[in-house]
Structures are given as structure tokens and as C-alpha cells.
């Protein structure tokens, strides 16, 4: 199984002693509460802030405020801070992928070989900021790539609430493309209603369909556009529950399915079935008519195999599912 089974308890190395870290003898301690607080404040500053980018922002602050006096100490602080962030939600795949990529990018550099530690720290801060800035620009790059696939008169089917998918649609509107969108309801958290509201505000003709009505409307659809919680090693995606069945219906009707996803969501996971996904459930209330003896199975996400995906719109370019593994190797090498 791929689930992170780490406990929520903070080990000794996470004792709070300063803004982000403090040093006692040769041991550097990370203030987990401060790191997590910085993460939540970054999310609160903007409703468009992605979870992974908020984590990257918090980790950059750890470098800037580090009390470590050696490269090894600084690397340990970053790893401890990343672990603290992942404990916020140990099933959040994009959070873990963002932390892993940030650690790879900042610590795999020739700057670590410099004799002057102050210069090493300066270079790492620069790399951290560059990574954060690049991640923030990813959505705009994807929107530019993806909007070219939306033609005038198209009907686009969307599922769930994805900021990057919305960015693609808004970019197409800005380019003067006339199209309409069908949005699934997105139970149990009504993400489709949130998406429909955002599209209405952007002037896009939008209709809402029940999640169970996807097969019924698919014959009217020209393309499916979804986001992703994670893009995995074989080119498949993990996304909101229902994405897989939409992909099956799209393929049956020869409708292309496109995925919009930032490269910091590329995760080193290789699920072979739905059972391999980190388990996360959404609360749902069926009311008093459902007998209490009836079990409710309410996973929040599913896995769509690469065979059902036409293309992925990413900040690395427009990729086929087969190209994802090569990009993952480069990102993590």
C-alpha cells in the first residue's frame, strides 16, 4: 500500500524553540508549529494558493530563518520541516510531492560544495525562491498551453474544482473563444457548484449535471477537462472520485480527456488499482432513511489509468501519458 503511516506525534527534533528553528549544541531543532503556521498563513493569503506552493513557501522560510551552522544541519532542518508539513494531512499526495521536489531542487546543487556556509545558505535561499516563483507561474503557463485545444462551439465537460482547469477555461474566454461547459455536481462536497459559480462569473454558459448523468450527456461533449491531485509514474492521474468513470464514458464516445496539472503534482507513485491509493474519505450524510446497518463507502479520489488520458497540459509542455515517466526521472534526479 502507498499510504503514509507516520503518526501525528511530534518527535524530539520538532520541539519549538524559535521562529523556525534553534540550536542546542550540535543539534538543530525545527519549530514544527511555526512551519505549519507559515503554511496555513500562505494558504489564507490567497484563495488561489495551491497546497504544494504554500508548502514550498513555508520551506523557503525555513532556509531563510535557519540557525544551522552546517550544510548537514540545514538539510536536516528542511527534512524535519517537510515531515511536519506532511503530518498536516498524511494522505495529501500533492503536498508530499511538492515537499519532495523542493528538497530535491534545493539540495541537489553544486552550491553545497562551497566552503563558505553563509554563501551556501544564500544560494539555497535563491534556489528556494526560484522554485516557489516557478511553481506560482505554472498555472499561467498551463492555461496558455491548454486554451488552444478549446474551439469555438465546443462543449467542455468538467469534474470537481480545479484552479488550473479554470485557468485554462478563463484563458480561452480571454482569447475570444465561444464555448459552453457542463459541470458535474461533485458530491459530496459540491465542488461542481463552486466551479459552476466561478464559470458564471467569467461569463461562460454553464450547466450542471448529476454525477450519475455523465453517460447521458457525454454524446453532447467535445472534450473533457479535469485537474489532478497527482500525476503518477505511469502517466495516470489521481483525482476526485468519479474521474475514472468519466474517462470510461469519454472513451466509449471517442471524446478526448485532457488533464491540467502542475509539475509539482508529479508524484513517485505507481498504483496498479484503486486499492493502492492513500485512503481519504469525505463526510456524507444520506439522512434518516438509510438504515444504520448499511455501510457507506465514500472514498474521495480514484485512479484513472493512462490509457484513458489523451494529453496532459503541464508547465513542462503538453505531454502524452507515456512521456510522464521521463519527466519524473528528470524532476527527481
From TrEMBL:
<keyword id="KW-0963">Cytoplasm</keyword>
<protein>
    <recommendedName>
        <fullName>Translation initiation factor eIF2B subunit alpha</fullName>
    </recommendedName>
</protein>
<dbReference type="InterPro" id="IPR037171">
    <property type="entry name" value="NagB/RpiA_transferase-like"/>
</dbReference>
<dbReference type="InterPro" id="IPR000649">
    <property type="entry name" value="IF-2B-related"/>
</dbReference>
<dbReference type="InterPro" id="IPR042529">
    <property type="entry name" value="IF_2B-like_C"/>
</dbReference>
<dbReference type="Pfam" id="PF01008">
    <property type="entry name" value="IF-2B"/>
</dbReference>
<dbReference type="GO" id="GO:0005851">
    <property type="term" value="C:eukaryotic translation initiation factor 2B complex"/>
</dbReference>
<dbReference type="InterPro" id="IPR051501">
    <property type="entry name" value="eIF2B_alpha/beta/delta"/>
</dbReference>
<dbReference type="GO" id="GO:0003743">
    <property type="term" value="F:translation initiation factor activity"/>
</dbReference>
<dbReference type="InterPro" id="IPR042528">
    <property type="entry name" value="elF-2B_alpha_N"/>
</dbReference>
<comment type="similarity">
    <text>Belongs to the eIF-2B alpha/beta/delta subunits family.</text>
</comment>
<comment type="subunit">
    <text>Component of the translation initiation factor 2B (eIF2B) complex which is a heterodecamer of two sets of five different subunits: alpha, beta, gamma, delta and epsilon. Subunits alpha, beta and delta comprise a regulatory subcomplex and subunits epsilon and gamma comprise a catalytic subcomplex. Within the complex, the hexameric regulatory complex resides at the center, with the two heterodimeric catalytic subcomplexes bound on opposite sides.</text>
</comment>
<keyword id="KW-0396">Initiation factor</keyword>
<dbReference type="GO" id="GO:0005829">
    <property type="term" value="C:cytosol"/>
</dbReference>
<dbReference type="GO" id="GO:0005085">
    <property type="term" value="F:guanyl-nucleotide exchange factor activity"/>
</dbReference>
<keyword id="KW-0648">Protein biosynthesis</keyword>
Amino acid at each position: 500500500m502507498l499510504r503514509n503511516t507516520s503518526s501525528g506525534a511530534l518527535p524530539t527534533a520538532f520541539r519549538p524553540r524559535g521562529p523556525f528553528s534553534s540550536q542546542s549544541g550540535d543539534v538543530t531543532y525545527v519549530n514544527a508549529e511555526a512551519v505549519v503556521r507559515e503554511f496555513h498563513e500562505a494558504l489564507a493569503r490567497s484563495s488561489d494558493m495551491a497546497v504544494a506552493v504554500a508548502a514550498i513557501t513555508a520551506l523557503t522560510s525555513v532556509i531563510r530563518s535557519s540557525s544551522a551552522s552546517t550544510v548537514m544541519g540545514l538539510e536536516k532542518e528542511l527534512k524535519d520541516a517537510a515531515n511536519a508539513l506532511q503530518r498536516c494531512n498524511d494522505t495529501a499526495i500533492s503536498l508530499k510531492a511538492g515537499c519532495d521536489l523542493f528538497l530535491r531542487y534545493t539540495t541537489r546543487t553544486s552550491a553545497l560544495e562551497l566552503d563558505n556556509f553563509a554563501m551556501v545558505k544564500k544560494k539555497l535561499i535563491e534556489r528556494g525562491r526560484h522554485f516557489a516563483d516557478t511553481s506560482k507561474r505554472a498555472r499561467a503557463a498551463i492555461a496558455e498551453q491548454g486554451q488552444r485545444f478549446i474551439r469555438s462551439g465546443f462543449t467542455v465537460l468538467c469534474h470537481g474544482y480545479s484552479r488550473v482547469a479554470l485557468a485554462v477555461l478563463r484563458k480561452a474566454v480571454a482569447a475570444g473563444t465561444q464555448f459552453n461547459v457542463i459541470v458535474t455536481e461533485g458530491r459530496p462536497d459540491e465542488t461542481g457548484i463552486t466551479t459552476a459559480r466561478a464559470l458564471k462569473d467569467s461569463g461562460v454558459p454553464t450547466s450542471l449535471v448529476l454525477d450519475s448523468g455523465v453517460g447521458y450527456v457525454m454524446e453532447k461533449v467535445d472534450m473533457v477537462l479535469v485537474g489532478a491531485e497527482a500525476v503518477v509514474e505511469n502517466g495516470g492521474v489521481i483525482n476526485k472520485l468519479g474521474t475514472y468513470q468519466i474517462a470510461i464514458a469519454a472513451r466509449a464516445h471517442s471524446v478526448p480527456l485532457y488533464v491540467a496539472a502542475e509539475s509539482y503534482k508529479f508524484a513517485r507513485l505507481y498504483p496498479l488499482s484503486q486499492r493502492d491509493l492513500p485512503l481519504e474519505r469525505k463526510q456524507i450524510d444520506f439522512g434518516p432513511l438509510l438504515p444504520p446497518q448499511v455501510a457507506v463507502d465514500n472514498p474521495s479520489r480514484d485512479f484513472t489509468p493512462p490509457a484513458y488520458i489523451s494529453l496532459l497540459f503541464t508547465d513542462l509542455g503538453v505531454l502524452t501519458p507515456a512521456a510522464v515517466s521521463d519527466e519524473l526521472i528528470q524532476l527527481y534526479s
